[in-house]
Amino acid sequence: ASLLRRFQSTLVIAEHNNDTLTPITLNTITAAKRLGGEVSCLVAGTSCDKVAQELSEVQGVAKVLVAQHDVYKGFLAEELTPLILETHKKFNYTHICAGASAFGKNLIPRVAGKLDVAPVSDIIEIQSPDTFVRTIYAGNILCTVQCDEAIKVFTVRGTSFEAAPTSGGSASLEK
């Protein structure tokens, strides 16, 4: 299992308002770190340098990818999905994830659909790089899901993971 973890790479889609990072992104980074391998964050917006700088200092983030353009103004899944697919094509991530907020719940199924994989929604635990736990039946039952897709695409329940420390990191910024 440790050999498998070494070859993992995860893309976390950062949720923000062009000024500050949404807290659920820090929880998602913690979940991504549990997968092993390198964690990169994608920041897309109109003037999001401040958010990118904030993310570069988060512990566990190796790389912050920044895309700034007016087309990302509304943070629409329809506009962000092609960017995420292009980013994945360039870096060949094994996992793509976002927080299970309205933003992530709108974006991740579209990304998964375009990649022709099944998304895993609202995970609360990571057992291995391909095995996740999520709730079903309004949270009354825990369901362990083993995902055999080539690319694992999922949303993370923010309350199930601690927020990643916002200092001590030294990620590179790529625009």
Automatic annotation (TrEMBL):
Pfam family name, one: ETF
GO terms (BP aspect): fatty acid beta-oxidation using acyl-CoA dehydrogenase
SMART domains membership: ETF
Cell location: Mitochondrion matrix
Record-linked CDD domains: ETF_alpha
The Electron transfer flavoprotein alpha/beta-subunit N-terminal domain, residue ranges: 10-175
Protein role: Heterodimeric electron transfer flavoprotein that accepts electrons from several mitochondrial dehydrogenases, including acyl-CoA dehydrogenases, glutaryl-CoA and sarcosine dehydrogenase. It transfers the electrons to the main mitochondrial respiratory chain via ETF-ubiquinone oxidoreductase (ETF dehydrogenase). Required for normal mitochondrial fatty acid oxidation and normal amino acid metabolism.
Subunit structure: Heterodimer composed of ETFA and ETFB. Identified in a complex that contains ETFA, ETFB and ETFRF1. Interaction with ETFRF1 promotes dissociation of the bound FAD and loss of electron transfer activity. Interacts with TASOR.
Family: Belongs to the ETF alpha-subunit/FixB family.
Name under which the protein is recorded: Electron transfer flavoprotein subunit alpha, mitochondrial
Organism: Fulmarus glacialis
